Amino acid sequence: MALVALIGFSLRDSAGGGSFSMTAYQGAEQLGGTTVSMADVKAHVAGKPIVLNFWGGSCPPCRAEMPGFQNVYERHADDILMLGVDIGPFLNLGSRTSALRLLDDLGITYPTAYAINRNPVAQFQITGLPATYFFDGNGNLVGTAPGFINERDLENRVRELIGTAAASVVP
Question: CA-CA distance, 56 to 88, in Å (whole number)?
Answer without folding.
Answer: 4
